[in-house]
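Friendly challenge for the regulars: who can give me the structure tokens for this chain first? No prize, just bragging rights.
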Amino acid sequence: MNFMNSKMSRRRWADKKTLAKAREMDLLTYLQHYEPDELVQLSSNTYTTKTHDSLKISNGKWYWWTQGFGRVSALDYLIEVRKMSLSCAVEQILGQRLYYPRPAPAGRPSPPCNTSPKEFILPRKSKTTHRMAAYLMKRGIDPAIIKHCHDLGLLYESDPYGNAVFVGKDGNGVIRYAASRGENFMGEASGSKKRYSFGVPAATPSGTIQLFESPIDLLSYATLMKLHRRDPWQDDLLSLSGVSKAMQKLPAALERHFERTPNTHTVICRFDNDETGRMAAAAIQELLSVLCPQTSVDVTSRCPPSGADYNEYLCERLKQIKTRRNEVIMR
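First reply, four minutes later:
Bragging rights claimed.
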């Protein structure tokens, strides 16, 4: 199996895991957390809703008496009562915009999601960090790199799923963007604004910004810098939350960076080692030459020396280092 087919297989598997997570939430828990104004308590353990007073919730289940059916999960309620599409219902429950929604059957398009501006739903913060840290360390990320981002308020663990949540803030320190990553799950929080994508500022201004497709690749590069005894935070590091080879305008997060840091003179694109990554870097170079004709902005592309992306390259390097250490021990 080639790399592309392998990646698509993992994406389909991730959708099944995400769907299972969404189905775990019962209707009472969902209403208490996301729509408390819709919930009406009838007795100590019986509830109904303002919209449908014949729908009763009790003992972890719900039943819609006028329609003659009932279920357990909040997912079933959103689909069968609220008439949401499956992808929109999952997004509503998990507060995540799914990167890989399940395609609708041919000839049967899914009902459209609400096109009005979405409320920003930040994943709930856990009191612990061990699950998030364990996941990132499993991906090869150095603990000191994780701690640095956590201490800056740019990374936390979600509750109840234990995903790593990467956030981006506006100039006032208000979180405007969040992306979650965990075992078999990847998504953006509903209502996230890519203009405020996850990034880590340089310890001192250097005039250089390093661009990545994802937060994991950003942290992988920082780990590689530390591995080679170099300062991981000598330049601004920014995740663009994905790139396109048919790019017609600057990514929103990069555009914001130039607004805030106009003295940036060097842009290094460290995108995936594929056609899309290389074409995206070329597009950024062309766009900046048009947008900044009076200033000289040097744009270069530095794909990982091997592997599909910087995280895969990091994992390869760590394996090589471990093998060498074992060989030394065996001598």
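The longest strand covers residues 175-182. The domain at 130-326 is CATH 3.40.1360.10 (Dna Topoisomerase Vi A Subunit; Chain: A, domain 2). Your move, everyone else.
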